[in-house]
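Margin note from the TA: students keep mixing up input and output lines. Inputs are the sequences; the output is the structure of the whole complex. Example:
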Amino acid sequence: MHTVTTVNVNGLRAAARKGFGSWLAGTGADVVCLQEVRAEPGQLDDGLRRPEGWHAYWAPAAAKGRAGVALLTRSEPERLRIGFGEPEFDDSGRYLEADLPGLTVASLYLPSGEAGTERQAEKERFMAAFLPYLAGLRKRAADDGREVLICGDWNIAHQPADLKNWRANQRNAGFLPEERAWLSRVFGEEGGYTDVVRALHPDTAGPYSWWSYRGRAFDNDTGWRIDYHVATPQLAGRCVKAYVERAATHAERWSDHAPVTAVYGP
Amino acid sequence: MHTVTTVNVNGLRAAARKGFGSWLAGTGADVVCLQEVRAEPGQLDDGLRRPEGWHAYWAPAAAKGRAGVALLTRSEPERLRIGFGEPEFDDSGRYLEADLPGLTVASLYLPSGEAGTERQAEKERFMAAFLPYLAGLRKRAADDGREVLICGDWNIAHQPADLKNWRANQRNAGFLPEERAWLSRVFGEEGGYTDVVRALHPDTAGPYSWWSYRGRAFDNDTGWRIDYHVATPQLAGRCVKAYVERAATHAERWSDHAPVTAVYGP
DNA sequence: CTTCCAATG
DNA sequence: CATTAGAAG
């Protein structure tokens, strides 16, 4: 029985100034996955670095002020792992994994970039290395009788239903054919994972989890669904509820992403 | 008859957001010298670039967001000059000169830097080139029967009375022996100029015109007098009133400097 | 449009 | 402690 939330905070220090703390205090989740922390633990206030009632783990990027993922868990994990074994990304602040009893849960922040740039090439290298890792992780977990849940900002919308203007974005990073095909492999035989939110809501547009700060994207709900719960099928089948906490970042707008929460039954 | 104000605005766009406009609307000056504009004219709102009732002249630095001086005059100058003939500093946004009838007035922003750095070396090169220019300017003006007034942020406190903690600052840029000696030459035979505010207030501590943003420098009046009216002696003798508008940047604090105003009688 | 950094003051 | 620009998103 787990309630898990993932949210890209777009700078935890800025988010904390604008209300992240009260959101965290009010959440019923027992696992929170954070992305784009953009700070080293030492740059965070005590109450944020070690929040009351949580075990907190940080994987900052070597580059200051960039990326950075974290995991907050109500119970203490048995094991932690930073990175997924690809040296280029080991200290890039993009992957942090924890073993809880019967469940491996990870916070992922996949690179983003504009089409045709070096950043996009980096994203593609990440994708190429990460898929085999994911597949291997699922197989090892199956052998151990564990479930796996990779939460985070994957920076890719999978299908037309996953963003407002899919036609206009077919040549934009985040909805490129090769990115979508890669996600299909994650969700297909090769990866063997399930897109939890889409499985529960097969016919909705969205629910979006990111809206650009530019223009009136949030007000018009011109969003993208790029933050996922990616789970082994058995775990996904146990999900009884999944939703985007649009209101959490609405009034105070402490991030351009909204938390994505799923409740996994026993 | 002139009322002249000089103020380092520490970024005119930021100052405008915080109340520079209402200060300008309320000033009785007919010449305003600005330093650290930190913007090209095109980056300023219309009302700021061409303020109602003023002629406005801008000398931005080639390096974006750095330095930049300006002159606002109620009457149109006969001539304008950017730089003082030293190529290194011609487009550094540090010197702008205007000829009004019988008066040459300039806005100066002398480089600042930390002792022992390349910035300090640049400051010293500026000082070395600027003193002969000043001396020549005074002589030419004398031949023409003109007065000269160089207003601005000279980034040097001259004497112990010109900063709160002079003992602690003897090795800090802005109060180094060589900088003080250079100002003494400006105010001595070689330059031939007068420190207008000090001439009127020979026995006051300060009045300071800059307070660091760090700590409680402003509240404790831990300030420096580094913004000067530097005038030919005859003009200085006509000064009937000289003061620092501490309140102008107190309530709203639109700069770390305060305006320094002097009234020159006929 | 917002984050954070770096250089600068 | 504040400014601006620039990289990044």
